Each structure stands twice: as structure tokens, then as C-alpha cells.
Amino acid sequence: MLERDPELAAAAHAVDELVAGAAAGGPVRGGILVYRGEAGIGKTTLLREIRRTAGDRCTVLTARGGETLTSVPFHVTRQLLQPALDRFDEEDVRLLFGDHFDLLAPALGLAPPPPPSAAPADPQGVRDGLAKLLGRLADRLRDRPPVLLVDDAHWADAESLAWLDAFTRIRRDRRLPALVVLAHRPLAEGPHRTGVPAVLAALADRAVVTLGLHALTLGATAALARETLGDHADEPFCRELWTVTSGNPYETVELLAKARDRMLEPVAGSASLLRGLGAEARGGGLVARLEELGVGPTRLAWTIAVLGADSTPRLLASLTGTSEPEVAEHTELLRQARIVTTRADREARSGPAAKPVRDAATTTGPGTGSDPAATIPEGSAHLEFAHPLIASAIYGSMSPAVRTAMHGQAAWALTAAGHGPAAVSRHLLEVHPEEDQEVVRQLRAAAVEHLAVGAPDAARRCLERALTEPPGPDAYATVLYELGCASLLTAPAATVRHLSSALDLPGLGDDLRIDATYRLAQALAHNNQLREAARVLAAEAVRTPPGTDRRRLQAANFMYEGFQAVEEDGPGRSRRLADLTANFTGADNSERALLTVRGFDAMMRGEPADEVVRLCDLALVDGIPARGLGWTDATWGFEIPALTGIAYAFSDRPDRAGILFTEAVRAFEISGWSGAHLAFAHTLLGLVHRRRGNLPKAQHYLEEGLRLADRVGNGLPVHWDTACLLVDTLVARGRTAEARSVADRYSFGPPWPGAIVLPDGPSVLGRLLLAEGRVEEAVATLEAAAEALVGRGRHHVVWAPWPLDLARALAPTDPDRAAGIAAGARAHAERIGTPTALGEALRCAALLADPPESRRLLTEAVAHLAASPSRYEEARARLDLARVTGSRAALAEATALATACGASLLTADAVTARASSHPPE
Q1: What was the pLDDT predicted at 287?
Q2: Could you give the CA distance from residue 857 to residue 826 in angstroms, rounded to a whole number?
Q3: Which end of the chain is more exposed for a tag (fewer CB within 10 A), N or C?
């Protein structure tokens, strides 16, 4: 290769590092290499040379993006991983997939997609699962570590790039168990990239090195000319060659080949002919040259442009209306014109080619090869264009009518050949709408397959195209419903639009109408429109006859009304909910769901904990969610079991909550739900450990919850809940500066979201401000919390501990008001009846009492808290009592308990100052 020494040296060094790390037995030192350059600048040739030099020491996996294949999800992923997995037997493949074969195999075309009734796969879970699969594969191939070469990455499908992005983020030190080499055209400049350009930019940011490929110099061009045409090529000829091609390697090689074919003398007298010859190699000149070959070769080239990776001889014959011998004859003409290459050409150039990439419809199972560490060549079709520039020129030269018609023919030919709807859909996306209900059916089926492999964007494209066909009157609303469901979590605003339209049209059956309303409310809630979500549910519930469906809508209505941060008539809603559920026994899932919402509301209101626990017990079956109400159930959502566990946690039953939340993590991981759902499950486990007083463990789960949530987006409800709990946990540990850092990083504070925060956000912020010594700000924040909660009848002093902290803040300056607040908190705690609530309220009351009464109250608080699961709160109460009594033994015991909880309680609370006149022990 000419003038590519720096690029090749960078690749050689990266391969050396990868192999050396694998041989040393330590961490494999892979990474990302990025090569950028204009079309024809030599990216493909460079990757071919890297493949050749790395092939004797590494397992080389190759793939190429395609201009007409960007809508095919996981197309690049399949090219990379299918040939690799084909080298293992079925048992080994299953081991590589771990517990997620059923989730991941359809995305790779190794198994048919799940049945339409199955829940859609979580895109984040599929990405993460495939990233782990590649990690395990790299571990198995440690003797010959994998090198992934992706050409034309600017045309890679979004799902494959998201997978590579996930894989390359698994190590913070950027040392990956594989080397990933990307080649693509320059990205558009600007700070607001989205989609594929944004992912490529992010990959480049983490690359070991990013290199731009430059055009050939005049000297290199001259050397190439003399190598091709003879040493007698003179300077004027070489200079004109360089001027015509601008030093573009592809155009230079093509022009020299034409000059050789025309037996052009490489001298000054021939230089003027180069410009005309060069025009034949690109654009209109290339098309004219193709047409000169005749109708048969031209139509064959068009068909290859449409079929792309599916260009097998049999399909080509079918679509061109010729026999396979004629296809072979026309192929030879295209080969001689350097327009297409065959598999034999590619094998001669770079080694044996792999089998074509499969789609799930033609899959029989994993391969049974014997040598997993052999060099794995590029998965490709039987025929390919010699260069992407040729493919683009020929595809673009077809008239829109011809191109559309050929896509339609390709769709039916692929269907007849046994390909599944998802494989066919990329062609159906290109055909003109003609009210063809078979097209609608195929696109709907394709959307189901795309959702099943974790590709909701591809599903949305299919359903949007189906709507333009359009569907018949009896199906139009149903397609809108399916489109809304496809974008439920990834695009809530679009979901609201589609589902609202579906509900406004005739054609939805009763079951779909109920489900559409429920999902519309979910989308509104995700879009921070809780009030509208509750309104939609209430309106539909009025129109629905009494029974299970109405109760489903009522449960969601009460839930979203209760989730609102501001509510017009909270006590009235609570009364209506209590009246509705008064005689429920948990006979079916609709009753269980309403009992769950009632139990959560009772907890928030500070009703007796025994009643809260009774309601939660009725909502479960043998202590676990009933079938159909589980964590991954699509009918009711994860909120129902989550509310049950939260109510248990704040009713001094963290053991029961822990069982539920541990199952949540397991269920989400098994189902591949590794986004916001798994993040929230970790948050809930953090809540359990916070309530038990295991502060380091709580911090661990909460930080993991934030890490998982950060991968999904910003400002999500799970961010608010997790940041709130983490701030509370860090303040409890005495790490105020860290708590402030978390609060600032996640904008924890006003303006508050439209939904309540777990636990009460303003109460926790007030506690942080007190820990920082910002008493006036803390008082204002806690008073605002009181105003918001008291009017709604919410008096749980552990969920929202504003009265305890407000009394402490006011004690030095306004003891009478502080005493009144503490007395109110004690009354509410006595109604709740849990040892934690009673102990915390008594500890607060001791602050305002004289020394003898303070000692009595603290002694009683310690007794209650010792009977509670709240070890941290017990440690605080014991510490207060030790300081009041002056007992060194009690102080040592309290300090040891605090240390066991992971808390640092080195400074005395000012709240015990009034009770400090005591004789030392």
C-alpha cells in the first residue's frame, strides 16, 4: 500500500498490544481504532491489509455497512458474530449465551423470533446481552484474540452500532478484550449530532487513535502509474492523472485500468484523454458504460443494487426473468467491466469467504464447526459491487418507478424463498402505497419480529409505513395502537399521539380499547403528565361496565392520582379508594392491584402499619406477586409489586420488601430488562438496606442504580428517587460533601418533578441543608414540605421526616413551636405504630424536654428502635442517650453500632444540649 505507513503502524501496534496482553494471561489490551476518509480513499484496502497481517495471530471478524441496509437491525452484528458462533458446537454456543439464548439468538438470526404473544425484548437488555456474549467469545478465543473490522460504518444499522458502543464501554480503562477497527466517511461537523453520527463520534472519543486518510501525493500517483503501465510513464501524464483523480486511490486505480485496457501510452500526448476516461469511472459515465453492456447486464446490476446482501444466483434469476446460465453470462460481463465481484474473486483476494448472513426465518440452529480460533472471513452475498461508489451510482441511476417496482418484486421473491417478514420489510418500506392489505399484514408481522429482537425503531418504521398504505377501516385503529405500543418507553410523546388517535377511531375491540387506555396513561406518566394520565383513565373507567376491566382502569387511575406531587383533593381520593376496596379479599388480580394501591396510600397517610401490612398481604399470593402481576408482566406493569414492597419497607417489614425486590432484579435480568427497570430494582434494594441500617450496602445499590439509569437518559423518575435515597444515605453516613455532590450532579432540588419522590424529596433536601449548617434554607424547605403534605393528609414520619428535622432546626430559636411540631409527629407515629416511627418521634421529643424527661424519652426511644429493623436510627438514639447520661460504656456501644452501620457520628447534635446537665458516670 502506498503512503499508508502511519495507519498500518497504528494497527500493527494495536494488534501487538492485543496479542501480548492475551499471551501474558492478564487483562487483554484491546481498544478502538478509527479510520476516516472520503469515498474511494482506501479504507477497504487498508482494512483488508490489517486483516491479512492480523490473521495469523488473531481471530478476524469482518462486516460492512450497506447504503440500502441501514434499516435492517443487527445486520452488522450478524455479519460479525454468526461466522464466529458457527465454529462452535451447539452446547458451546449455549454456554456462550449464558441464560439469555432465547433473548439474544433471534437478534443474531440463530433462532426464530418469539411468538407474537411474547413481550417485546428490552433494547438495552439485548445490547447488554450481546456485549456480554462478545466478551465471553473473546475469552474463549484468548489464544487468538478477536479483531473486529467494520467497513463503511457510516452505513451500519443503529442497533449494531449501539451494541458496539455498549461493548466498548464495559472497561473504563478502555482496554477491551478485543480490538475494534472502524472505517467510515467523515462525520458532519456540529455539536448536535444524533443517531449513527452521534454514536460514531462517541466511539471515536474512546478510540486509542483516530486517523484521517489522505489522498495520494503526486509521487505516489506516479509510482502507481509506472507500476501499472510501465516505467516509461512520463511526468506530464502522471501529473494529469493526479489532477483528474485528485489523488483518490480508487479513482486512480480505475483510471489506470481503463488506460491499460485502451492500451493508452502513458506519455504527455495521451494526458488529455485521461479526463474523459475518468468520467466513465463514476456517476453518469459509469451508468453509460453499464448500459453499453446491454439490457441483461444492466438489469442484473439493478437487481444486485436492490437485493444487496441477498444477491444469490437463484434470486437474481427470479427477479431478472432470466435463467441461471444467463445470470452467469451477464455476471461475467459485469466482472470484466469491474462492476461486480464474485465470491471466487474475493476468496482469491483475501481468503475463503464465509457463508452468507442468515435471517431467523431460514435458521436451523447454531453451527457445528470445529475450530473456533480460525480466521473468520467476511460474511457476504454471492455477488457484490466492486466498490460502494459503484453501488450508489447504479442504485441512484434507476428511475423511481423502476426502483420501487423492483423492491416490490424483491419482497415477494424473498417471501417465496422462505425469508421472514423482518427480512422482507426493508423492501416493503420502499414500495408505493397501493391500499394492499397484504403489505399491511407483512409490515405488521415484521414489526412484531423487530420488537421481539429489541429493535423498536425498526418496528416503528414498519408500522408508520403500514399506515400510509393505508390499512382498511377495520384495522386502521389497531395499527395505530400497535405503533403506540412500539414506542411506549422510547418515545412517550409519539405514543400519546398514536394511542389518542387510535382511541378516537372506531375499530378497537373492548380488550384493545382498555389496553390502549392503560398504555396511553403509562406514556403520559412517562411524559410527566400524571394529571392527564389520571383523567384519561377516569373517563374510560366511567364508560366501562363493572368488572375486571373497570377495576384495572381504576387501579391505574388511583395510582397516578396518588403519584402526583400536587393534588386537588388527596383526602377525598383516599376515602374513595378505601371505600372501593373495603370488602376486597384479593379474589383476582384487579382486586389485588387495587389493594396494593390502597396499601401504599394508607402507608403514605400514616395509617396503622398493621393495616398496611394486612392490605399488602392480601395483594400477594403466598408472599409473592400473583401470576400476571409479576415484575415483567405487561398487563399491569412493574409498579404494582413495587408499591407493595415500598409499603412493606416503610412499615418495618424490610425483610418482605427485600424478598420482593431481590426477585425484581432476578426477573429483570433474566428477561434482559437492563435499563430503567433494573436501575429501579437496584434502587429499591438500596431502600431496603437503608431501612435496615446497612448504609454501605445501601450506597452500593443506589450508586449502581444511578449508573444503570445514566445509560438510559437524564432526568428520569428513577434518577430522582435514587438520588434522593443516596443523598439521605450519605448524610446518614456523615458524608455531607458527597451528598451535596450527588444533589448537584442530579439537580436534586426545586423545581421538583410532577411526581412524588421516594422518599419525600423536600424532606431529604432539608436534612441535607441542616447537615451543611444552612439552617434558614433548611427551615424554608421543610416548611414547604409540610405545606404540600399536610393538606393531602400524608403524615408518615419515616417516609417524610420533615417534622422531626424541622423541630430540631427550630429548637434553638423557637422552642415552643418546635415542641408543637414534635408533639404532632409523636401523635402520628403512635398511630402508625411501628417501632421505627415511635423511636424517631420520641428521640425528637426528647430534644424539647427537660433533662430527666429527656432521659426517659430517649430510654423509651432506644427500646423501640432496638425492637425495629432500623439499626442506624437505633445507633443515633443510643448515642443521644449516652451523651445525656454521660455513660462511657453506652457511648462505646452506640459508637460501635454506628460503625457497624457504616456511619460516622463524631459530632454531637445540638438537639441534646438542653439535656446535657448530668453527673458523669
Answers
A1: 86
A2: 11
A3: C
pTM for the model = 0.88
If phi > 0 it is left, if psi is from -120 to 50 it is alpha, else beta; for residue 600 that is alpha
Round to whole Å and give the CA distance between 430 and 69.
Answer: 12
Give the angle 761-763-764 at the CA atoms, nearest 5°. 65
Give the separation between CA 646 and CA 664, rounded to whole angstroms: 13
- Residue 2: CB partners within 8 Å, gap ≥ 6? 216, 220, 223, 224, 249
User: 383 by DSSP, 3-state: which?
Assistant: strand
Q: Quote the CA–CA distance of 625 and 617 in Å, as a whole number.
A: 10
Give the C-alpha distances (Å, rounded to integers) separating 319 from 157, 242, 304: 26, 41, 10
User: Rounded CA gap, 462 and 466, in Å?
Assistant: 6
Q: What is the DSSP letter of 379?
A: B
C-alpha cell of 352? 475463503
Secondary structure (H, E, C), 292-325: HCCHHHHHHHHHHHHHHHHCCHHHHHHHHCCCHH
What nine digits make up the cell of 764?
Answer: 431529604
Contacts of 191 (CB under 8 A, 6+ apart): none
Q: Is 760:802 a contact under the CB 8 Å cutoff? A: yes
Distance CA 256, CA 265 (A): 11
d(CA 660, CA 657): 5
In angstroms, rounded to a whole number, what is the distance separating the alpha carbons of residues 131 and 177? Answer: 11
All residue ranges of the chain with pLDDT < 70 are 171-174, 190-192, 280-284, 346-381, 489, 906-921
Order of all β-strands in the sheet with 179-184 = 59-64, 146-151, 179-184, 31-36, 209-212
Contacts of 114 (CB under 8 A, 6+ apart): 102, 106, 452
The pLDDT value given to residue 416: 93
Residue by residue, DSSP assigns 312-361 as -HHHHHHHHT--HHHHHHHHHHHHHTTSEEEHHHHHHHHSPPBPPPP-GG
Three cell numbers written together for 705: 442504580
Contacts of 323 (CB under 8 A, 6+ apart): 317
